[in-house]
Amino acid sequence: MRVLIVEDEPRICADISRTLSGTGYSCDWATDGEDAWFRGETESYDLIILDLGLPKMDGLTVLKRWRAAGRQTPVLVLTARGAWPERVEGIAPADDYLTKPFRMEELVARVRALIRRSTGHGTPILEAGGIQLDTKQMHLTLDDVPIPLSPLEYRLIAYLMHHKGRVVPASELLEHLYGDDDARDANALEAVIMRLRKKLGARAIETRRGFGYLVAGEEAT
């Protein structure tokens, strides 16, 4: 799952990125409103964390431009502003908000909930056939047997299970698995899928030639 962090304070940005990377997310950064707007317009993200107090273009303007352009990516607003009118104005086109300072545990919980909601899941437990993924605990089982996963394996199976029932193109998987600093290589993607099949069974992830991948036991849409 790929997250864009828009925050002009390097320490806060680094703390958020380190926390989210440790809980299974691939993170990109933007430190001003113009860069954030461009990234949100041209890249595909599962969620955007957006500070309102940004240089070059304020966060609220960025958010309104995304929404006016039809970009419906879930947005979690961060704000240090204390006035309720400003909070209400900022949250209106957003999906949720947190007021600084905040606890990282709370931010992670909000991120998980927003991504689940945006993909149509009401609980942190995702299931497909005998596979069960607890996105809160980052714990996967196959027929009730715990299966250890590398961070990349976790991100891949989590993305497919969040989008179960849909064939996910390889290009989309690459875009959401890897951050800006990683090479997006189709052969590397296939290698991760092969490792997951060894752990979960050869039919756990189906290949639809020329279309993409989906978790087993689900009808494609």
UniProtKB/TrEMBL annotation:
InterPro entries: CheY-like_superfamily, OmpR/PhoB-type_DNA-bd, Sig_transdc_resp-reg_receiver, WalR-like, WH-like_DNA-bd_sf. Keywords: DNA-binding, Phosphoprotein, Transcription, Transcription regulation, Two-component regulatory system. Pfam families: Response_reg, Trans_reg_C. It comes from Methyloceanibacter marginalis. This is Two-component system response regulator. Residues 123-217 form the OmpR/PhoB-type domain. CDD domains: REC_OmpR_EcPhoP-like, trans_reg_C. GO terms for biological process: regulation of DNA-templated transcription. GO terms for cellular component: cytosol; protein-DNA complex. The modification 4-aspartylphosphate is found at D51. GO terms for molecular function: phosphorelay response regulator activity; transcription cis-regulatory region binding. SUPFAM superfamilies: CheY-like. Residues 123-217 bind DNA. It comes from the Bacteria. Residues 2-115 form the Response regulatory domain.
